[in-house]
TrEMBL record:
Domain (EAL): residue spans on this chain: 24-274
Protein name: Diguanylate cyclase/phosphodiesterase
Domain of life: Bacteria
Region of the whole protein represented: 455 to 742 of 742
Amino acid sequence: RAKTDSRGSFSFFEPDMDARAQSRRKIETELRAALRHEVLRPYYQPLIALSGGGVTGCEALVRWPHPERGMVSPGEFIPVAEDTGLINAIGAQVLRAACRDAARWPGDISVAVNLSPLQFRVGNLMATVMDALKQSGLPPRRLELEITETLLLEKSSQVIATLHALRALGVRISMDDFGTGYSSLSYLRSFPFDKIKIDQSFVRGVSDNREAQAIVRAIISLGMGLGVTITAEGVETEAELNWLRAEGCHEAQGFLFSPARPNDELRDLLDRQGTAGGAFPVSASRVA
Ligand code: C2E
Ligand code: MG
Ligand code: MG
Ligand code: MG
């Protein structure tokens, strides 16, 4: 692409692109340092069973405590980490920390860790997962790995083989942000997975939106037919919760119950709630 326009002056877009590239380079440099000093760490958001109300597991969501910018959210640095390949080291660190933390949670609570498609490409994912399980002593059944439909777009036999190998270990696979990808339904036959997480864009306001209701019903019925667990993401209101429960959705996750919290805060919450399937104290933990 030409850097100059027809009059030979600099393109209108160039300063912007430069600033963008510069800001990404800055994030990259700082991210490398953060990795070296192991300051990235997962926060945990509980998943609640819609029958009974107990916590079934928690999702690990990476956070970056930044000296000047406070807590940086993954939306800002995961894309940079993916472009630079740093996501592999970040992913491994998050996985190790999540397994270590979860091994000390009470009861049978599982931990869900997000995987980037790139982590399937480097070839050492199996070893990373097995190491994390071994070092922590976490039983494989209590580890869930979240993948997205973009991974399936590649239709790679290596990806399918890795997913089968992970499941053979006893690890479970969840399809995250379901409904937002571009892949066809046919991949659902060739890819092994255990859970569908309905994207929050369909869940938001579902209790009074006919179109969202039609989509969520279709996903629930698809999930039931496939015999997988169905989880709703981003549940913020009692009305959404009640609608989802009435439709037979199995699990929910969202600010109605709790945001992602540091491990010690999460442990306090789990201790207070008790592990014996006690109902989650919705109103007590709701974010203001
Ligand atoms: P995700 O895996 O779909 O995670 C759900 C996101 O929705 C989280 O944002 C969570 O804080 C947010 N959320 C949960 N409940 C609600 C709600 O009721 N309302 C609203 N508005 N939002 C809610 P977060 O933590 O900023 O993470 C964003 C995305 O970054 C994640 O989406 C995931 O794709 C990615 N991510 C996070 N941690 C990791 C990681 O360790 N590795 C990789 N590869 N990706 C990660
Ligand atoms: Mg996720
Ligand atoms: Mg999601
Ligand atoms: Mg998402």
